[in-house]
Amino acid sequence: MNQPEPSHPELNHPELNPPGRNRQIERTVLITGASGAIGGALAVAYAAPKTRLLLHGRRLEALEALAMQCRALGAEVECHDAPLTDDARLEAWLEALANRCLPDIVIANAGQNQHVPGPGELEPWEQVSDLLAINLRVPMAMANILTPPMVGRGSGQLVLMSSLAAWHGLPATPSYSASKAGLKAFGEGLRGHLAPHGVGVTVVMPGYVSSPMCAAMPGPKPWEWPPEKAAQVIQAGIARNRARISFPFPLNVGCWWLAVLPAGISQRLLRLMGYGSRP
Questions:
Q1: How many angstroms from the chain centroid is the CA of residue 142?
Q2: φ, ψ dihedrals at 267, nearest 5°
Q3: Helix (H) / strand (E) containing 233
């Protein structure tokens, strides 16, 4: 997910959005970034009879294949590709969804990563701006648009995809770390604000989950999980309205200590573990 969102119109293909099956829907789940590893695994985990899946993604062939897989498991599936970083079109899309089938669970999973190109070099600002838009601004915008109707209904769950990198910035991925730290803080604050109104907010902080994006990240990747395992843990935490879902346990504890220790010590530890910047 390292490319900007497409500018073509939203999906309106009958083969991707077949007519409804005229049956009672008990749960509607919206997942952005569904054509990626974690998003796709979550879609399959939630696919079941009486469940409507609203799947958003950029890679249309992968999205279509995922939709077919989820329909085979009994779910009703709609595919969408509204450009997430276009404020007006994002708002129009989400408001239309809210009026027709307000989601019970919203998983803001779409995101991207990048890293510094070389020793002493910073990431190109245009790329940083794009990353902040999709990783931080879009989930905040989605919450801003969908929270009022959820509050009006008195129920709903917002799920924000942060990262263990939110505990302490990694030298090779400072912009990515910043975007995930910002999303973590936003979700924590929003949870306390919305809890009295029946709307839950869960911040997900994964470690390394096998995917092309993960493979492109520099540095060691200890305790790397398959996406299916990550999806199971995330789904279970959402069902319990967990404030934070962070995994795997050993890496989470290590990253938490990086946030607790004096910054100078944490940065020396990162260099010793192979995450530091080269001279």
A1: 12
A2: -70, -35
A3: helix 227-239
3-state helix, strand, coil in the chain (%, to 5): 50, 15, 40
Residue 265: which region, alpha, beta or left (left: phi > 0; alpha: psi -120 to 50)?
A: alpha
Residue 244: phi, psi to the nearest 5? Answer: -140, 135
Beta-bridge mates of residue 202: 159
Q: Which position has the token pair 């290590």?
A: 254
pTM greater than the 0.85 cutoff? yes
Identity (one letter) of the amino acid at 176?
Y
Residue in the structure block whose two tokens are 């989601």 = 103
* Widest Cα–Cα separation across the chain: 63
| pLDDT mean by block of 10 residues, the chain; 279 residues | 40 46 83 98 98 96 97 98 97 98 98 93 97 98 98 98 97 96 98 98 98 87 97 98 98 96 95 75
27-272: CATH number: 3.40.50.720
Place of tokens 């991207």: 112
Residues in the chain: 279
- Distance in angstroms (rounded) separating the CA atoms of residues 5 and 68: 23
Burial status of residue 183 (CB atoms within 10 A of its CB: 0-12, 13-18, 19 or more): buried
Q: Rg (Cα) of the chain, in Å, rounded?
A: 19
CA dist 145 and 247 (Å) reads 29
- Cα–Cα distance for residue pair 267/172, rounded to 1 Å: 12
Residues 6+ apart with CB under 8 A from 7: 83, 86
